Amino acid sequence: MAAIDYSEKIPNNVNLGEDRTLQRALEQWQPNYLHWWRDMGPEGAQELDVYLRTAVSVDPQGWAQFGYVKMPDYRWGIFLNPADPNRKIHFGDHLGESAWQDVPGEHRANLRRIIVTQGDTEPASVEQQRHLGLTCPSQYDLRNLFQVNVEEGRHLWAMVYLLHKYFGRDGREEGEALLERRSGDQDNPRILQAFNEKTPDWLSFFMFTYFTDRDGKFQLCALAESGFDPLARTTRFMLTEEAHHMFVGETGVSRVIQRTCQVMNELKTDDPAALRAAGVIDLPTIQRYLNFHFSVTIDLFGADESSNAAIFYSSGLKGRFDEGKRTDDHLLKGATYRILQVQDGRLVEKEVPMLNALNEVLRDDYIRDSIAGIERWNRVIEKTGVPFRLKAPHKAFHRNIGSLAGVKVSPDGRVVSDQEWNASVAQWLPSDADRAFVGSLMGRVVEPGKFANWIAPPVMGINRQPVDFEYVRFN
Ligand SMILES: [Fe+2]
Ligand SMILES: [Fe+2]
Predict the structure, then answer these.
(1) What is the pTM of this model?
(2) So what's the pLDDT on residue 1?
């Protein structure tokens, strides 16, 4: 079951060959996908030989195989974790019933919406990152970017498989629409706002893969609890790939910080102008990037009070993070949760039914996980002796969704006047000048083992290869 059949046009471990209709539908979608990849995938990189991992099995041990691949030849396919024939729905009104192997009619529209919304983020991030290869700080980083990109492409395959197999004609139409929307496009944008933002430089990329791919982790974890078993099995396998994306982000930011602190110590200064003149990114600028990506990403969890969230949970479609490890009744009727809102110019807590607050519950789980990594960055700074700490902004800062949308709150959680906001925003969020400065550092470094001045080399290479390994062959 776990082995993947690579003799087929579409690699898979779902016995695709036994379902001719589905196979035909996916084989019709495949060239459109490749067309999208050539148009919207990594710019100027389609002919490069990239040292990539490809999934060869869904076994936890040794599922990946490394080798040089031209990205358009990457074996995108359909991989599900093995089925557990005894799996039961473990939350909501269907608690204790057998997990669904097919879509229950009454949940069809909601399930399709969940799958399409998740699916839309996958090609979006490839589009957002498509120019970054031209300004990579090293071969090692270039390879990591491309690895993330091909796997986001595979995540799109994962969602399109579900749409084609379980949603008939409208599923196939949604599969086409996923290739037609474009990140940042005025007329036909991606569904969620964070996926329409630009990722113009590598600091943004590392912040994105740390914060926004982590949103992916939490959404996928919630879907991996789903009573709709094919969705649970698909997302479980996607999570194994997601871990590498967050690794790229966490270590990327960490290496930027490390290099900055090194130069701070060499020059014995914390003056941003002096550090910028030395070609590294000052820590306050890194903090502003963090503030931006953190706040934009926590909006992705949706409104703090949401009847849809309650419906998705009670109907068994989307669980909580670590649903299976929680010890409450998994029904949550009568339970409450505290959300934030503004009253008389102050942030106050309001108790609401927990079922309606499940977006907020997931957001708070996400925030805890994000902060843990920020603390790991702080340990990197501490080790260099530099007296500076990075901090997650208050969750009410710079929000655009739910009861906090548009409220002016400082990163330390004070409701502020428009006047104070306008006077301070350049200290809180990346300014045009910050972005222009970071942009000015971006230049392509592709000699094996060489790194741009603004980032430290990694501690280890990929797949136990040396750091100066030839990760990309330019032919
Ligand atoms: Fe993804
Ligand atoms: Fe990802």
Answers:
(1) 0.96
(2) 45
